[in-house]
């Protein structure tokens, strides 16, 4: 009977395939490249795609025949002229001692307008079909409309790329297998709670609860840590030589994180992605965190340091996600009813980070745009958000995508659990308050 119990508590396994190659920077080097090259690569790929969609959209209209008063279809990259958009030259020219008391969280203004551009030039867009509150600089679209006497283009309809095709994959098994997502651990922050972190680790590794709860923990096959795992005090990063005491304080968050990850890696596979507060390159795509930061965890082959964005497959189910920078930037330059709407837009635009490199830092690729989405994921997640949100997005061609906003764990104590059998997910909350 004891043997049977042990067999029931064997952790389930899954097959793993990394698809991060597209986000890895290997042979590329900085040689004064211009960011126009990544826009040209994006426009070339997306225009070819949109051109193939036109016959099923407006087959009766001429393409690229721009004449005053004549309806036609044109292609190009949107540029949004924004009155409140920050300018580095303006910041440089201002007195350093004068700082605004309130910094706007969103730079939208009623006078904003959209422009369409390609290799030949720019044309200002008019009409109400193309909302300035929805679109951002960098989105490639096809537009139906006509040129006005003022030289603008009056938009009557817009064609987006839409959700990319999704590979139909038969589920390998009908058994429950779970993936846990957690982001924003922010180890090192003064308000962080080490006990909360340990509860998370003990739950995932099966060291909490009764036999039933341990049985559920044994069905967790993977953990994804979605950015911002550590937070270093800005007082320690002032560019001056650090005293030995400060050097020790600088290392403490990494030591604490490595202890936690070592406990997890000894039990199940985990992926860790860099975020905006982690010691990685600032520009997207962020490269994997250096393995020397995790001397304990790296002794296990279950530990994987990954890129941001991150793409992988578990049992042929495709996952795609970021640590949140792409969505956070969209919230500054456009508006939506919730964060899930932003996730859906990036899928419909087939681009993970349309605002890069305009307002979001990215590597100056010359011959490709790694953020284009050519295959629809089954699960699309984004980390370091204010709250947990999720929905199931259905495409016109039968695509089914689970969208997930993962909240910052340090502030909410919430992790997200996804069942790979049916793509259902729920929040898992870890509290440490003692009731009186």
Automatic annotation (TrEMBL):
Which keywords describe this protein according to UniProt? DNA replication, Nucleus
CDD domains from the entry? MPP_PolD2_C
Transmembrane helix found in the keyword field: no
Q: Which residues form the DNA polymerase alpha/delta/epsilon subunit B domain?
A: 179-388
Named from the GO MF annotations, one term is: DNA binding
Q: In terms of one coarse class, where is the protein primarily found?
A: nucleus
Protein name per the record: DNA polymerase delta small subunit
């Amino acid at each position: 009977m004891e043997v049977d119990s042990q067999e029931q508590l064997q952790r389930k396994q899954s097959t793993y395939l990394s698809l991060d190659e597209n986000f890895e920077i290997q042979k590329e080097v900085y040689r004064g490249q211009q960011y126009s090259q990544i826009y040209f690569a994006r426009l070339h790929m997306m225009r070819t795609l949109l051109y193939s969609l036109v016959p099923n959209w407006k087959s009766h209209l001429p393409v690229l025949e721009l004449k005053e008063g004549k309806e036609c279809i044109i292609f190009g990259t949107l540029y949004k002229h924004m009155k409140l958009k920050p300018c580095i030259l303006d910041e440089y020219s201002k007195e350093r001692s004068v700082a605004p008391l309130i910094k706007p969280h969103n730079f939208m203004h009623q006078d904003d307008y959209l422009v369409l551009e390609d290799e030949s030039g720019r044309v200002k867009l008019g009409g109400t079909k193309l909302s300035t509150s929805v679109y951002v600089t960098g989105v490639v679209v096809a537009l139906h409309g006509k040129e006005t006497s003022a030289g603008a283009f009056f938009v009557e309809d817009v064609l987006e790329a839409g959700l990319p095709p999704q590979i139909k994959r038969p589920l390998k098994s009908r058994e429950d297998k779970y993936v846990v997502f957690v982001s924003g651990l922010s180890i090192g922050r003064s308000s962080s709670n080490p006990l909360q972190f340990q509860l998370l680790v003990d739950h995932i590794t099966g060291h909490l609860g009764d036999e039933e709860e341990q049985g559920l923990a044994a069905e967790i096959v993977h953990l994804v840590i979605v950015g911002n795992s550590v937070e270093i005090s800005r007082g320690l990063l002032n560019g001056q030589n650090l005293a030995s005491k400060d050097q020790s304080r600088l290392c403490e968050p990494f030591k604490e994180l490595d202890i936690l990850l070592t406990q997890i890696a000894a039990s199940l596979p985990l992926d860790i992605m860099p975020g905006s507060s982690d010691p990685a390159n600032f520009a997207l795509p962020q490269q994997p965190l250096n393995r020397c930061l995790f001397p304990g965890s790296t002794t296990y082959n279950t530990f994987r340091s990954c890129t941001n964005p991150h793409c992988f497959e578990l049992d042929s189910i495709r996952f795609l996600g970021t640590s949140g920078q792409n969505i956070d930037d969209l919230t500054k330059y456009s508006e939506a009813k919730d964060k899930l709407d932003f996730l859906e837009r990036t899928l419909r635009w087939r681009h993970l980070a349309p605002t890069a490199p305009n307002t979001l830092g990215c590597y100056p690729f010359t011959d490709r745009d790694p953020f284009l989405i050519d295959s629809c994921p089954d699960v699309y997640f984004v980390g370091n958000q204010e709250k947990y949100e999720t929905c199931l997005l259905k495409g016109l061609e039968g695509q089914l995508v689970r969208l997930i906003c993962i909240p910052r764990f340090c502030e909410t104590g919430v992790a997200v659990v996804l069942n790979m059998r049916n793509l259902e997910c729920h929040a898992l909350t870890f509290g440490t308050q003692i009731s009186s």
